[in-house]
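Honest question from a wet-lab person: if I give you the sequences of every part of a complex, can you actually get the arrangement of the whole thing, not just the pieces? Trying it with mine:
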Amino acid sequence: MTHVLAEQIIFTHPGARTPVIREMSFAMGKSEIIGVLGPSGSGKSTLLRLLAGLETPDSGRIVIGGRTVFDRGVFVPPEKRGVGMVFQDYALFPHLTVAGNIAFGLHRLPRAKRAARVREMLDLARLDGLADRYPHELSGGQQQRVALARALAPGPELLLMDEPFSNLDAGLRAAIREELREILKRTGTTCLLVTHDRQDVAAICERTIRIGGEAEVGATDYANLSAIST
Amino acid sequence: MTAGYAVPGPIIAIGVLSLFIALDRLLAPLYAGMGTGSAPLVLSLSLAMLIAGYVVRFMATGYNAVEAGFERIGTKYAEASRTLGAGVTRTFFRVDLPMLRGSLLGGAALTFVEIAKELPLTMLLRPFNFDTLATKAYQYAGDERIYQAAAPSLLIIGIGLASVFLLNHLAGSGQK
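Yes, you can. This is the full assembly:
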């Protein structure tokens, strides 16, 4: 069943002459983890920003969790899309503690439920004992886990990760990759992960979308999957 | 919008004065209706005029501090907040405002000192019997009451120094 759908997405950066994303289409099933591979400047991060609602496509259609969030005359703002995002540099709120960061997206829950959910996320991301620390007191790997916990806390329909391992050293990468895969599987999260590292994709993702250069060649049984962009 | 900082105080004062007198003329029927008598000058005798002058003159110091603050934090925190389900208003109060706190305080301190030592604009726009430290010092010095002039002058210097320390402290704590 199609959970996330992008159809004929075209996007041009303001002031640019040629579109960076040209008629891109793909579909994702529920709980599927897909990697987006491509060289820098190929529009990988832009694709995530389009899905999150932080940029507006020139044309096309985006469906997330069975709801059309972008189409002609339709634009659902980012806070109503049910999308979680892990930024490349994490963008953890420096004025909030780890628990405060994770609870930020849970403001609609009653207090008791919120506290329970924060504890659950701390446990899931193995952050026990760090709840009252501030982001600048954490190591890179811990910050990354906080960013993941924060994005997963509201239970997003789709998780977007922008180069999640780029700020970690090589030794840590392998361990965190394994951890990430396990967390995503356990929570049944649908995830789109952008990277330029083939190994990330091999370790975590079930399918690959290649953007920039050749057409998409990932092993897939989805007939409607195609991602062509230059 | 921030050009007022480059314009000398008296010129801004004359501009604000003519604007407020014109406003008072326009509102004269309203004053008459409220029964304040025949005196048609209400706004141009009030503190509002002086404050309007200060706003035009010192917009730049506050504005630049806040703008620098926004440039420093960038848009990524606001974007993170939006993807976490917070609307524009909630993002402003829960993310932007707390992160801008240092810049806001710094801008306020700087503007406060500028106003405390401003003289020409204040002289022209202040209501009757309204004095700032600067006008008091000027008045005493003009009357050759040198000892009396020292008190407000020293106070201005004290306020200036205190705010320099405050700004330094803010810059130091803003690093983390």
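Two things worth pointing out. Chain A touches chain B at residues 52-54, 77-81, 83-85, 87, 89, 91-95, 104-105, 107-108, 136, 150-151, 154 (CB under 8 Å). The longest strand of chain A covers residues 2-11.
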